[in-house]
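Tutorial sheet, problem 5. The two components below are modelled jointly, 329 residues in total.
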Amino acid sequence: MKLLLTTFIASLLFSPNKLTIEKWIIEKNSNLSIQGRSNVNSFQCDVKEYLRADTILFYKEDQQQQFTIKGGLIINVDGFDCHQRYMTGDLRKTLKAQEYPQLKINLLSIGNFTANNKNVKGTMAITLAGITQRMEIDYSVQTSNDGNLHLNGSRQVLFSDFGLTPPHKLAGLIKVEEQINVQFQLNLRAFKGI
Amino acid sequence: MKKVIASVLISSIALLVLSLAMFYVSAYIFPSVTQEYLSSVFRTSGTTDWLYYAHPFVLSIALKWFWERYKGIFKGSIILRAAEVAMVYCIVAMVPVLWLTFSAIDVSLPMVLTWLLYGLIQAFVAGIVYAKINP
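Model answer (structure tokens):
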């Protein structure tokens, strides 16, 4: 047993792959929006301010691998604003806001982005209305002069992915389409604390 | 009696087609007003859908009764008589009901005005059918 433990610790200490850990803070000006269509018009619902100062950790073992991410966002479903009072209320009802008030996004991984390779793929787990779906996301990564990181991502999802039914009213004459586009911009600031 | 049933049936079918056509026209002309039907004050489609499709029949029967009782006071051409029936229907029935609806239910004024317009057009078309078949 002692030998096994010693071998394990030694393998960590003398591992040929260097483990890089970066800690980032999600800025409150990060935002998320949902774009959808009904058979009569389009709509967009936004969460303009992300008020929780959560942190996320990026892990990478060597220069070639993608980053593994630990952390994510928790968004209040009641924070969505569809810019039309009736749509806002209806979206919250459709997303079962009373029963499941939070939308959780766990970032899982992101491709190795560089100055030359800004468009990368990543994965995340989205929990909505009590159902978690692991999804691949297309990211565009930008770095600003102050060293902050801007992750722009988008993904087409179906209401049915989360066991939800898109609204349909007036004897089915008006209905929202199954597919919606989820877009987000995460503004990340490097954590400089201990 | 045959004429009464025939006119009610013709009017009902005409109003049903018209109400669907008016929905799609208003969706094209006023998409943001039509999108308001997604508001949570409206029922989600389901077991009561048939009530929507039955409303032209209810309206036709009601207007037929009104026509038979008061057609003597509407004079002039078919168009004029139909227009007068539509005006009376709007003033006596639609305006008070929509006034109450607007005061009690969270719907916008443009939406209420589209309902007034629907009612006016529906009563006008029913009036034409009745003035033609049962003058």
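Marking note: Chain A has a mean pLDDT of 83. Full credit if you identified this.
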